[in-house]
Amino acid sequence: MKVAHVLWSFKYGGIETMIVDILNEQVKTDKVALFIINDNIDNRLITKIDEKVKIVKVGRPLGSKNPYYPIKLNMQIVGYNPDVIHCHMDGLHRVIKVPYALVRTIHSTHFDIKKNTYYKECTAISKAVLCECEKRGIHATLVLNGIDCDAIKKKEDWSSPKEFHFVQLSRILFCHKGQDVLIRALKKLKDEGIENFKMYFVGEGPDMTELVNLIKDNGLEPNVILEGAKSRDWVYEHMCDFDLFIHPARFEGFGLAVAEACAAKVPVLVSNIEGPMEIINQGKYGMTFESEDVDSLAGRIKEFMQNGYNMDLVEGAYEYTKMNFNVVNTSKMYLDVYKRTLSLS
Question: Residue 158 belongs to what domain range?
Fold first, then answer.
């Protein structure tokens, strides 16, 4: 089988890093290509892709409306002649105009499909996304996101720290990831005289300037470190160095970094929204707070700092993640979807 995966851009993010794993698994048994439309590419991520995967860079300048690039994309797809085209982002059906079977993975509860007339098959990365599909009358198959748990270094130091190190790993985008809620919660802790913490933000995004200003306005510069974007190798090596992973997202289809933290045996604190709650089995394997509630988030952080590690929670989260979110299973399920799509064509 020949599979073409298509994305707009290829920077570090949950979708892109997981696609690297899927490509590397699928190419073991099938022919696989990755088509990247925009010139918005992080070559560090490209180097993690198996050399047997064909990589096609269309080179469209970000935001360009020049019709040359959609034409170029379609010609390159025709030249590859895939059996299936796997789309991973909103809007791709508007530029792909070739007569091959289209499969769409829906990665978020916020997506652009109102009535599916474009894709032969849709897949949902979590039960939360599947539920949203059903609400919109869109038939989708559940294919859970997966990671390589064995590749992630595990936390081993469980001594109570004098200074706590927290981490948040995601795109810097307030309306989605909720970094502003976290900053205000940290300010509340500091106002209560709790200052023995460092907060590390790992990632980049359109709200970076706003984040810097919010940190400054709340007097948190001594407590906050902006790491910028980091490679997945860095994440897999250093996630275990932190005491608590905090995910304050306002909406989230899954939350790959939450699963990575669980695999690193780092305690997690997530907003009580569908995707992250699914990863921690509805609160059984992680701590939660009321979404967008600064007081709730500050209270749970304070509780963690006072009570320390819950090893049953940590070990349970690790075992649950390893059992349920395995990238080998994810890749195989996608291949099954492709085969079913072709049999229906």
Answer: 150-324
